[in-house]
User: Fold these one by one.
Assistant:
Number 1:
Amino acid sequence: MSIKLFDNIKQLIKKDELLGEWNSDDGSGFMMIMGSWMKIKFNGTGKFESWSEGDDETGGYNHSGEFDWKRIGQNKIRIQEKGSSKIEEIEYVLKKQNGRIELTSGQPELEKFEINAFWNFAQIMFKKQ
C-alpha cells in the first residue's frame, strides 16, 4: 500500500516535460537568419520570440509576446497568446534524439510541404535533455 502512495506522490511532483527553454536551433547556423525561442514556465505562463532577417522583397519580422498555457491531457495543452481571444488546443509530440528533445504539433497547412513545426512556429522546437 505504501509503495502505491509513494508512486502517486512522485507523479504529483514530477516536473512537466514542457517546462523550460525551447528554440529552433538545429545546429545548422540557420537560426542567425530565422528562428524561434520560447520559455514555458511552471506558473502557467510563457514567453516567445520569432524572427527572420528576410530580404528586399519580403522584409523581415520580429514577433514576441507572452502566453498562458494549461495541460489538458497527456500530450495536449491549451495556449492563449496574451492580447488575443483565440484559445488553441495543441496535441504535441516529443521525440528524444541526439541528446535533445524535439517538440512538434500537427500543422496540416505545413504538412503538405513536409515541414514539421510546433504551435505558431514554422519550425521544430528543441531542448537539451
Number 2:
Amino acid sequence: MTGQNQPHRLIAILGHVGLVVALPIALFGLMPANEYTAWGGAGIDCDGPGPVLLFSTLGLAIYGAGAVLNGRHFRKPLRLLVAGTCMLVCLALMANIADAVREQRVNDLASDTCG
C-alpha cells in the first residue's frame, strides 16, 4: 500500500463504519407509524408519527449519501454491494415515510379523539 492511497482507504473504512453505526437510526426509522395498526387494532396513535419521521429522514439522508458515495465507485465489487444495500435501506425508509405521512393525515382528521 502506498502512502498516497492510505488516506483514501482510511476514509472508505470510516465511511463503512459510519454506515454500520447508523444502522440503529435506520431501524428506529423502520418502526411502524401507528403501533395499534401494527398490532392488528384500529386505534389512533395519539403520539403521532413524529419520531418515525425524524429517524426515517435522518436514516434516509445517511444511507442516501452512502449510496451516492459508494455508487460512484461501481466497478469495485464491495462498493457496489454497499451502494446496493444502502439503496435497499433507502427504499424501505421511503415507504415508511410515506406511511407515516399518511398516518399523520389520519391523525389530523381525528384530532378530537386525542386530548
Number 3:
Amino acid sequence: MDLRVLAELKEYLTVKQHTPGRLKVKVDLAIRNHPKLPQLQNAAKSGSSAIKKTNLNIFTQTLTVDYDVNMLPFESLQELLSCDDPDRIASLATELMESVSV
C-alpha cells in the first residue's frame, strides 16, 4: 500500500481502531466516486512490503490494514492518521514510504 494514497484519501477515512500491526478505519461512501479508490482496493497487491494484508469492505464501510510494525512503526502511522495539517500529512506519508522502501 502506498501510504500517500491513504493520506490523499484521509478525508474519507475515520480511524475506528489502531493497535500495533492492525488498523481499522470507517470509510465514507463518498469515496466510491474518487479516482484513487481502485488503488486503495488493490493496496495489498502493490506498494510497500510493510503492508501484509488489506481488506476493503464497501458494504460494511471498513478498511482493515495488517502491517509489519518492524517496518512501519505504530507511532509513525499513528502520527500520520491523527495529523490535521495537509502538508504535514503529505510529508509524513512520503517519509514513511521512503523509510520502508530502503
Number 4:
Amino acid sequence: MINIYIGPLLLGLLLGFVLGTRIRDVPQSGLKFTAPVYLVFIIVAFIMAYELGPFPYYIDVPLASGFVAAAVGIILGKLTFGRGTKPQTEN
C-alpha cells in the first residue's frame, strides 16, 4: 500500500507557486521562458528529487515529493500569475 503524505506536497506546491509568481522576463538578459525550458526544468527536477530521496521515515515514492511539488508550483505560478513579458523600464 502506498501512503501519500499531503503536508510536503501542499507546502512545496504553495512555496513553488509563490516563487513562480515572482519570476519575470528581463529583456536585457536575453533569457526566454519557452516550452523547452519548462521541459528541461521538469526533467532536472525529477532527477534531483530522485537523488534526494523521500523525506525521512516516508514510504510513499522514491522521490522527494515536496521538491517535485515545488517545481510544479513554480511552473504553475509562472504560467498563471507570473510577471508579464512587458519591458521593464528603469527610472
